[in-house]
Specification:
alpha/beta, Rossmann fold, Tumour Suppressor Smad4, 2 domains, NAD(+) kinase, ATP-NAD_kinase_N, NAD/diacylglycerol_kinase_sf, ATP-NAD_kinase_PpnK-typ_C, NAD
Length: 225
């Protein structure tokens, strides 16, 4: 098994738990590769039995034939992890070092049992829908996938914006609002919910379009089946 690790910078209280993760992987002779920036951050902070291999992007992960990705942090870190792996179908396990743990649901005291279950392949996969963003000028490069939502929002102005929305090439609506959110079922409980959008079951596959502070009160969120 080959495991990739992605994480963000952390404070010293998290250090023993990060050390524990690398110890367990080393003890079980698991081939591990670490995101380049995260490797730079942890170098000198934790003890390693051997030098780690690193990766920088999606293409490195694919060429390395990674089996599983471990995300170290909170829900924000896990969202970044999913953007990184795109549509590769690499399973992600989230260990929660942050404040929110809706997606990164493994707590610090569950690290040992969770990783051992992972190594022994004693787990089930929870499949989630993603969004892929395409633009004429390739604005997002290789990081054009999102697990939660895509938001178009006004910037540096108090005026509202107009967003013309189409579904499969057919005109849907023109939104006069502060912006528009396109959310997945996973993202339906995030920003979209705060803007009055509905909660959608994670496995439903439905998408939600939620206007942000629309001028017309009759313009409501729409769920696509």
């Amino acid at each position: 098994m080959k495991i990739a690790i992605y994480g963000r910078q952390f404070n010293n209280t998290v250090l023993p738990h990060v050390q524990q993760i690398f110890n367990i992987l080393a003890e079980n002779d698991i081939e591990t590769i670490v995101h380049d920036k995260y490797n730079q951050f942890i170098t000198g902070k934790i003890s390693l039995s051997k030098k780690l291999h690193t990766y920088q992007n999606y293409h490195d992960l694919i060429s390395s034939k990674v089996d599983v990705m471990i995300s170290l942090g909170g829900d924000g870190t896990l969202l970044d992890t999913v953007t990184l792996i795109r549509d590769s179908n690499i399973p992600v396990i989230g260990i929660n070092f942050g404040r929110l743990g809706f997606l990164a649901s493994i707590n610090k005291d569950e690290i040992s049992s969770a990783i051992k279950s992972l190594i022994n392949k004693e787990f089930t996969l929870d499949k989630r829908v993603q969004l892929c963003i395409e633009s004429d000028r390739n604005l997002f490069g290789d990081e054009n996938f999102a697990l939660n939502d895509v938001t178009i929002h006004k910037r540096d102005t108090s005026a509202m914006m107009i967003v013309h929305a189409y579904l499969n090439g057919d005109f849907l609506n023109s939104y006069w609002a502060d912006g528009v959110i396109v959310a997945t079922p996973t993202g339906s409980t995030a920003y979209s919910l705060s803007c009055g959008g509905p909660i959608v079951l994670p496995r439903s596959g439905n998408m939600v379009v939620t206007p942000i502070s629309p001028h017309n009160l009759n313009v409501r969120p729409i769920v696509f089946v």
